[in-house]
C-alpha cells in the first residue's frame, strides 16, 4: 500500500473512534465521589413580570443520598433541608410566609426541589428519568443541558444548565414565563472529617436559625471580602441591586 492510499484510509479509521472519550458516566463518577461536600452559594433570581432582581446568598452542606442543607444568610435567614422527595423548612420559618419566601428564592419548587440535591451532586443517572441530558465541553470545562421529558414539566421549566470543572460551579434555570435563576457555587470542598459533618449539620440546621444571629464565621474579614468581590462580579453596580422592598422576602 503506497503512502497516498494510507493517507486516504487514515481519516476513515480515526472516524470510527469515539470523538470524545469524556462522557456523562465519567463525569458522574467524578462528581459523585465525595460523600459530603460544603461551600457557599449565591443566587440571582430575575422575575420577568414585575422586572425585579432578587439576590440571596448563604452556605450549603451536601450529603450524598441523604440530604442537602441550604442555609440562606441574606437577605433573610432561612434554612431548607432537601431530602429525597421533600423539602423541610427551618425552625424559625413562619407558616404564613413560607410559600412566599421559598417561591421567590426557589421558583417552581414543586418540580425543582426534588432534583436540587441530584443537580448539586452531579447524579445524572437519577436525573435521566425526568430529563434529556446533553453534555458538551471537556473534563476541565464542561456543560450539561437538561431538557424536561414530561409535558407537565415543560410548561413552567424550559431548561436547566449545569456548568463546571472539577465540581459543579453554576446552575442556570430558565422558566417559560421569562423568569431565570442562577446559582453559583464557590469554595466547594469535600468534608472528610465525620465529626465536622455532625457539627455542620447542627450549625446549619439548628443553631443559626434558633439564635437568629449570624455566626462569627460569616462576619470575618475574609468572608466579607469574599462577598464583596462576588457581589461586584455577579450583580454589577448598586443600580442593578433590588430596592429594600424588592429584596425583602419576609417580615
Automatic annotation (TrEMBL):
GO annotation (BP), single: protein transport
Signal peptide: 1-21
Descriptive protein name: Outer membrane lipoprotein-sorting protein
Region (Disordered): 208-251
Compositional bias segments (type: Acidic residues): 230-240
Domain of life: Bacteria
Compositionally biased tracts (Basic and acidic residues): 241-251
Oligomer status and interactors: Monomer.
Regions of compositional bias (Low complexity) in chain numbering: 208-222
Organism the protein comes from: Onishia taeanensis
Record's keyword terms, sorted: Lipoprotein, Protein transport, Signal, Transport
